[in-house]
Every structure is written in structure tokens, then in C-alpha cells.
Amino acid sequence: MQAKIRHVAVMCQDAPRVARFYELLFALTSKAQTSDELHAKMFGAPVLGSKRVVRPYERTIIVSDGNIGFAFLRRPPGYPGGIDHFGIEVDDLDTVFARMKERYPKVGAVKRPANRPFAAYSSHDPEGHLFDLAQPDSQNIRGVWSEGQREQDRYIKHVTIRAIDPEAMARFYADVFEFKEEEKALEDPNFYLTDGTVTLVLTPWKIEHYPEAEHRGPGFDHVGFKVENLATFKKDLETMISVDPANLAPRAPSNIPEQKIVMGLLQSCRYGQYHVPDPEGNYVDVAEQ
């Protein structure tokens, strides 16, 4: 069975602002908006006397690096900000569900509404990290996912999850999706699972990692991008900040002890060379490797 990571979603306070940060820095592209008529039909949006459909400003924005659809979601009340879930495209959903039922009976799945792009179903791993599921022929495959894949110089290379039992999580993703484990040093506590293009990094979470600081729980940690030249990327970041510092500058750290701990944990990722927060404080790993 073939399985590919094709989607990452982030909960944002200001989705258009955060999406613009990534679009500019990483050359991400979006597909044209759905027509007003189709949008009203799919989402029940109100139609004015002017025949225009009312779309909220802070709507969901979806862009792509040619392989991964990167979704910036409006954060509703009661939901935390940051990476919310990722998405896996498989060629046989029945096989996935059969494996989960046989080997991981406590893992559930729910069918998603037809108007939701990409996701035919949503599920989770044994620690509760969420992922969407779809088949290439699903009616939910539309927007950036319906376009042919392309290669570009800047693209998502890895997604990192901090897990209580990363070895067990690695076993789950290998058992269910046949992701392949990459080689690593014997002393490396992380597990690296690849779909052939994108790597899922599973790294240990321990409360002891946060001494004398506000702690973070286990869960999605960061996304890593590969770029053609790190010096060029840094110059692009400086230029972008100089043009629109109010909206496009990375969020500045507000507490030095927490900052040191977060940076120390990020630096334990073997892929990252440079770490930068987006305007809402979500860190991104950037590397040439």
C-alpha cells in the first residue's frame, strides 16, 4: 500500500496574515477561490442583494509547495493555536481501517463532511495526534490537492511530533501506513519515518524538559522546510520584515527562560539549521540539507 503525507494544518488567530508569511518566504501557491455560487452552495454562506457572497476575512487559507497542502485555519473558541493535524493520502482506505481495527482497536475514525477539502475521514494515533485520511479518487480531493504535483526549491521536508512513547508511535505509523524508518545514530532518541519525500519525526516528550519554565504538553511541535540557500533565505526574511514589520515580522520571544528551552529542544532536531517563529510564534526549522 502507498501512503503519502499531503497535508499540514495550523490553527491561527489571523489566518490570512500567517499564510502570507509562508507564501512569501517559501514560494507557496494557492488555487483560485471557488466561485461565489459554489461557495454559497457548499458552505451555506449568505448571498447579498448585490449577488455577492459574504466570505469572512479570517477564512481558511490553503497553499501548497507542490506536494503538501498547507492549511491555515481560523482558530475557533476552545481550540488551541499551532499545528492541529496533518493529512495522509493512501491508495486503499479499507486496508488502513482493517489494520487499525486489528492492531489498534482503540483508534477511531470519523467520516468528514463532503464540503471539507482533502479529508474523507479523520483519525488519530494511539496518543491522540490527529490526521486526516483521503484516497486520490475521493470527492474531497480538490483545490491545491487536485493539481499535479510539482518540484520547487523551497518545500516541507519534515513534520515533528513530541510523543510520550515515540517508539510505539513509530511502530503505529509503520504498521498502518508502511512508512519506512530512516537510519539514525544509536544515541539518537528520535524516530524518523519517511513516505519517500517527507519525514515524520517522532521525538520524546518529558516534563523534565521544562525545568523552571512554563511547560508544553506532548503534541505537534514544528514543520521543517528545505531551502536552496540558507543565506538567501535569511536575506529574504530581513527584506520582508523591512517592508511590513507590523504584519510579517516573526513573533518576538517574551520570556527568556522559555525561549532558551524551546530553542534547545528545536536544536535537537537533526534536520534544522535555522529556527524562526512565524507571526503567531509557531517555530519553523529551515535547512539546506
Protein architecture, described:
The strands form two sheets. A seven-stranded mixed β-sheet has the order 2-3-1-4-7-6-5. The chain has a seven-stranded mixed β-sheet with strand order 9-10-11-8-12-14-13. With about 290 residues, the protein is of the alpha/beta class. A hairpin with a 5-residue loop joins strand 6 and strand 7. Helices cover about 25% and strands about 25% of the residues. The chain folds into two domains: about 5-35 and about 60-145, 2,3-Dihydroxybiphenyl 1,2-Dioxygenase, domain 1; about 155-285, 2,3-Dihydroxybiphenyl 1,2-Dioxygenase, domain 1, CATH 3.10.180.10. The protein contains seven helices and 14 strands.
Key features?
2,3-Dihydroxybiphenyl 1,2-Dioxygenase, domain 1, 7-stranded mixed β-sheet, 289 residues, alpha/beta, 25% helix, 14 strands, 7 helices
Strand content: 25-35%
**Number of E-state strands:** 14
Low-confidence stretches: none
Shape: globular
- Using only C-alpha atoms, the radius of gyration works out to 19 Å
Summed up:
By secondary structure, this protein is of the alpha/beta class. 25% of the residues lie in helices and 27% in strands.
